[in-house]
Design a protein that fits this description.
The complex is a heterodimer of chains A (116) and B (116). With 116 residues, chain A is an all-beta fold. Chain A is 0% helix and 53% strand. Chain A starts with a strand and ends with a strand. With 116 residues, chain B is mainly beta. Helix content of chain B is 0%, strand content 47%. Chain B contains no helices and 11 strands. In chain B, a hairpin with a 2-residue loop joins strand 5 and strand 6. Classes of the chains: A mainly beta (116), B mainly beta (116). Chains A and B meet through strand 4, strand 5, strand 9 and strand 10 of A and strand 4, strand 5 and strand 10 of B.
């Protein structure tokens, strides 16, 4: 079963605009990760944010995490056509490295289209 | 360096046929994961290996699915008597240590299986 739910399911923007995707999850976590998937390169890790972090930046990416609301957001600034892909959030199983924390649970993804 | 590789990239099988999917993880990676991704969905966990030990196979959908990693490197996912509902992309991922969902997982390009 899938823990995360990304919102929106699909997003279409013009090149240069910012794109924001949201993720909600159900159980406690140690960290949350965002991955990108396109047909050319498979599933690629973007960024990992730990449960004790609220915000993290990597290049044009900004991720926030609100553990009280069990939600995260991914912001891509100054989007490019090459950012066209599906974006997934993934959570671990919580607990302290115990059984179940090693598997990632993915949401259904947000399909982002960046129009040149 | 070389990433995770999977073979074959595409497989068409007749219903009832057995298939074997191969994964070559990044050299030296301790952890190896198999995920199943149905069309329009996020990946779903199948099984996890730490070196040659299969520590969790709770995600395998039926006893027709079998995975092994006999020498702690290459892994094979075998599906016996394939059914149409087995049609999906099968993703393999590896990570450097035994921290599972607490660390980045590196994904292969996947094997797209179509059962007719």
């Amino acid at each position: 079963s899938q823990q995360g739910e990304e919102d929106p399911q699909a997003l279409s923007i013009q090149e240069g605009e910012n794109a924001t995707m949201n993720c909600s999850y159900k159980t406690s976590i140690n960290n949350l990760q965002w991955y990108r998937q396109n047909s050319g390169r498979g599933l690629v890790h973007l960024i990992l944010i730990r449960s004790n972090e609220r915000e993290k930046h990597s290049g044009r990416l900004r991720v926030t995490l609100d553990t009280s609301k069990k939600s995260s957001s991914l912001l891509i600034t100054a989007s490019r056509a090459a950012d066209t892909a599906s974006y997934f959030c993934a959570t671990d199983g919580g607990g302290y490295s115990g059984a179940g924390s090693y598997q990632l649970t993915f949401g259904k993804g947000t399909k982002l289209s960046v129009i040149p | 360096g070389a990433g995770v590789s999977q073979s074959p990239r595409y497989k068409v099988a007749k219903r009832g046929q057995d298939v074997a999917l191969r994964c070559d993880p990044i050299s030296g990676h301790v952890s190896l994961f198999w995920y199943q991704q149905a069309l329009g969905q996020g990946p779903e966990f199948l099984t996890y290996f730490q070196n040659e030990a299969q520590l969790d196979k709770s995600g395998l959908p039926s006893d027709r699915f079998f995975a092994e990693r006999p020498e702690g490197s290459v892994s094979t996912l075998k599906i016996q008597r394939t059914q149409q509902e087995d049609s999906a992309v099968y993703l393999c991922a590896s990570s450097p240590r035994n921290r599972g969902g607490l660390e980045t997982q590196y994904f292969g390009p996947g094997t797209r299986l179509l059962v007719l």
